[in-house]
Amino acid sequence: MRNATVRAVNRLTTRWAAQAPGSAPGTVLAAAGVWPLLALLADGAAGPARAELEEALGIPAEGAAAAAGELLAALAGVRGLKAATGLWTEAGLPLEEAWSAKLPAGARGRLTGDPDADAEALDAWASDRTGGLIERMPVSLDQDSLLVLASALTLRLRWIQPFEEAYGGPCAGRWADRPVRMLLRRTSLLDRVRVAHGPSGAVTLLEVVGAAGVDVHLALGGAEAPVGDTLTTAIDAVTRALPATGASLLPDGSPGPGLVVGTVTAHSPEPRLDIETAAFEVRSDQDLLDHARLFGLEAATDRDHGHFPGISCRPLAIASARQSALARFHAEGFEAAAVTAVEAVVGCAPTLPRPRYRARRAEVCFDRPFGFLIVHRTSRLVLAAGWVAEPETEPETEPEAP
Predict the structure, then answer these.
(1) Alpha-carbon distance 378 to 138, whole Å?
(2) Where are the beta strands (DSSP E) in 115-243?
(3) N- or C-end of the chain: fewer Cβ atoms within 10 A?
(4) Residue 48, helix vs strand vs coil
(5) How would you list the strands of the sheet with 164-166, edge to edge?
(6) What is the pLDDT of residue 176?
(7) Domain extent listing, the chain
């Protein structure tokens, strides 16, 4: 992946995450699924719409379609990650050959004008490309729909070191005494946990390493810190735009939220990090037009004008732009998927010998709402960001009848 493209996608992720809500049950934002679609639109746009899309993308429109194709091809080459692009057009809509030739290989379909039949076909594509994780295409079709451009990203990874499950919930924090499905792990690698400092104070970051070159980073900010500040600080830290200090170099005490570090008398000199976090599943549906300026789509929604002469000689305007996304963190691994669609219309004891060593110990606990990032290890591309407002819980069981 080109460094310039990675920086551009991470920039959009940061700007979107800064506006992330903290409401239950949480949210998932996959800018890596939105950015290629915006790039393809920018290539065929003109006037104010082109200028707005360039600002949102962070690169010139001239090379945007090529960058989108390279990004999607690179993502498809990551083990455990699948990427797809689809285009559906109304039968009578002429496409500019110069634009359509730049589209990545993928589905090409026709819109019949029957909203129910077309929705069924689009839903089938979304379900197939995400292995059933996203069952519906996030678009509302009608008889005026001329074009639908969509992307799908799906990630399935396994932890190098699985967690152990525990039940009964954390003993402290906002989720104390709730039937939270907790995940426990112990490692000698203290620097899997780090602390960075952002506009609202310290943020504790835990790196959970995947077996396929993609990792998940959990982020815990201060109890009163805004969601956006916690996520943007985490993004800056994992992309190395902001320094973060590993637990091996942190002072004794509580140098970050949910983190305790100290030197203790032990039976072994080996350091130890004890991890406790909550399993979670978060689903969200995002209307990108709620942040139309952020995505460069404000001018393009004006149906009084056509904005994409490079796509078709018929005047086109954006009618809808939405994303459906899922993130699932469990003991064995992680799953995530996002489908993004743009529609255009016309216009996480026995007795022992006496201890004789001094050893570093750290404990980190995610027992209240926290953020997460999905990061490609080598490029530092942030594939998705999200917020866990509610953890996964165990269902309450009915008492057995006598």
Answers:
(1) 31
(2) 145-158, 164-166, 182-187, 193-198, 201-208, 214-220
(3) C
(4) helix
(5) 164-166, 182-187, 272-278, 357-365, 259-266, 253-256
(6) 79
(7) 3-156+283-346, 158-279+350-388
Specify burial of residue 270 (Cβ count, 10 A radius: 0-12, 13-18, 19+).
Answer: exposed
pLDDT along the chain (402 residues), means of 10: 93 96 86 96 96 97 94 91 93 91 84 91 95 94 89 95 84 79 94 97 97 94 96 98 96 96 80 94 95 96 92 93 97 96 69 65 94 96 96 63 44
Report the sign of the C-alpha dihedral through residues 69, 72, 78, 82, in that order: negative
The sign of the CA dihedral 155, 168, 207, 210 is negative
Residue count of the chain: 402
The predicted model scores a pTM of 0.92
Q: Which two tokens stand for residue 82?
A: 């699948």
343's CB contacts (< 8 A; 6+ apart) are 139, 140, 141, 145, 147, 148, 318, 319, 320, 321
Q: How far is the C-alpha of 11 from the C-alpha of 75, rounded, in Å?
A: 18
Q: Which CATH number fits domain 3-156+283-346: 3.40.190.290, 3.40.50.720, 3.30.497.10, 3.50.50.60?
A: 3.30.497.10
**The CATH number fitting domain 158-279+350-388, selected from 3.40.50.300, 2.30.39.10, 3.40.1030.10, 3.30.70.920:** 2.30.39.10
108: which strand partners?
A: 87
**pLDDT recorded at residue 142:** 82
Dihedral angle of Cα 128, 133, 136, 138, to the nearest 10 degrees: -110
**Which residue is associated with the tokens 């920039």?**
11
Contact 141/88 with Cβ under 8 angstroms? no
- Distance, in Å, from the CA atom of 327 to the CA atom of 154, rounded to the nearest integer, reads 10
* Residues in CB range of 338: below 8 A, 6 or more apart: 28, 30, 32, 33, 134, 152, 153, 323, 324, 325, 326, 384
Residues 6+ apart with CB under 8 A from 62: 43
Angle, CA 137 vertex, CA 57 and CA 299 arms, to 5°: 35
